[in-house]
């Protein structure tokens, strides 16, 4: 299995050169990932750009009117809850961490609205620390490839951590997200254009992936 995984990584790297987005500020990664919850990638990008153009720092978000934040992030969906969360997170960072985003998983998980995917995204894209953010793309593609057989992203994360050498963790999310956005979509994936189709179980066992109990 490990050889299969490493082959997949190398093939995907040829199509999607890794960037790691390592120049992003941890705070922007944190807030953008909170905004990304339960919405499409393009909505997250639009909402994040609008928010940071008006309130670029944790201090400005903490001091902003909640109504202004809601208006700016409306495209992300669930904006009432998300606005309250990012404002509260900003206040906590200022009061407890001197305005800095912590780089420890356990501290990140204590922030409002921060689950394992969000925390791991901050570690990878904000600090370049090995972790596996298991979002919907990672969960879907890992199951289709037969690397894991899991029903929720958190299970996928733990299984991938067992099966993939630590030095490759940091590349998994970026590769699978790009592949999921361009080729391996939730509905009607472009298997004929997929560079890893020969290593995938999706076309072999299509009925399995139509099972509503498996959240892909």
Search tags:
216 residues, Endonuclease III, domain 1, mainly alpha, 2 domains, disordered C terminus, Endonuclease Iii, domain 2
Write the layout of secondary structure elements.
Blueprint: H1 2-15, H2 26-35, H3 41-54, H4 58-63, H5 66-72, H6 79-96, H7 105-108, H8 116-127, H9 136-145, H10 153-163, H11 166-182
Helix pairs in contact: 1-11, 2-3, 2-8, 5-6, 9-10, 9-11
Q: What's the short version?
A:
The protein is mostly helical and 216 residues long. The protein has helices at residues 2-15, 26-35, 41-54, 58-63, 66-72, 79-96, 105-108, 116-127, 136-145, 153-163, 166-182. Helix 1 (2-15) packs across helix 11, helix 5 packs across helix 6 and helix 9 (136-145) crosses helix 10 (153-163).
Report on the structure:
With 216 residues, the chain is an all-alpha fold. The protein folds into two domains: 2-18 and 133-210, Orthogonal Bundle (Endonuclease Iii, domain 2); 26-127, Endonuclease III, domain 1 (Orthogonal Bundle). The chain contains eleven helices and no strands. The chain has helices spanning 2-15, 26-35, 41-54, 58-63, 66-72, 79-96, 105-108, 116-127, 136-145, 153-163, 166-182. It is globular. 37% of the residues are buried.
* Name of the top-level CATH class of the largest domain: Mainly Alpha
H/E element order = HHHHHHHHHHH
Percent range for helical residues? Answer: 55-70%
- Per the CATH scheme, the topology name of the largest domain is Endonuclease III, domain 1
Roughly what is the average pLDDT, rounded to an integer? 92
Sum up the overall morphology in one term.
globular
Sheet bearing the most strands, described?
none
CATH-scheme architecture of the largest domain:
Orthogonal Bundle
CATH homologous superfamily grouping of the largest domain: Hypothetical protein, domain 2
Rg computed from alpha carbons, rounded to a whole number of angstroms: 18 Å
| C-alpha termini separation | 21 Å
Share of residues in strands: under 5%
Low-confidence stretches: 211-216
Total helical elements: 11
Number of extended strands: 0
- The total domain count is 2
> Based on helices, strands and strand pairing, what is the structural class?
mainly alpha
């Amino acid at each position: 299995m490990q050889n299969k995984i490493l082959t997949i990584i190398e093939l995907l790297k040829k199509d999607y050169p890794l960037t790691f987005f390592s120049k992003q500020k941890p705070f922007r990664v944190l807030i953008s990932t909170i905004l990304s919850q339960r919405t499409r990638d393009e909505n997250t990008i639009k909402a994040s750009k609008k928010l940071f153009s008006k309130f670029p720092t944790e201090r400005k978000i903490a001091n902003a009117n909640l109504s202004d934040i809601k208006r700016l992030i409306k495209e992300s969906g669930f904006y009432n809850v998300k606005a309250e969360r990012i404002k509260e997170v900003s206040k906590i960072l200022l009061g407890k961490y001197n305005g800095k985003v912590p780089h420890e998983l356990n501290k990140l998980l204590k922030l409002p609205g921060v689950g394992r995917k969000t925390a791991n995204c901050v570690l990878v894209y904000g600090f370049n620390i090995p972790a596996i953010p298991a979002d919907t793309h990672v969960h879907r593609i890992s199951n289709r490839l037969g690397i894991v057989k899991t029903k929720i992203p958190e299970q996928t994360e733990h299984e991938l951590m067992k099966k993939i050498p630590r030095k490759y963790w940091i590349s998994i999310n970026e590769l699978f997200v790009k592949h999921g956005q361009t080729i391996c979509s939730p509905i009607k994936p472009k298997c004929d254009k997929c560079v890893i189709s020969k290593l995938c179980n999706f076309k072999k066992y299509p009925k399995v992936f139509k099972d509503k109990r498996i959240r892909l």
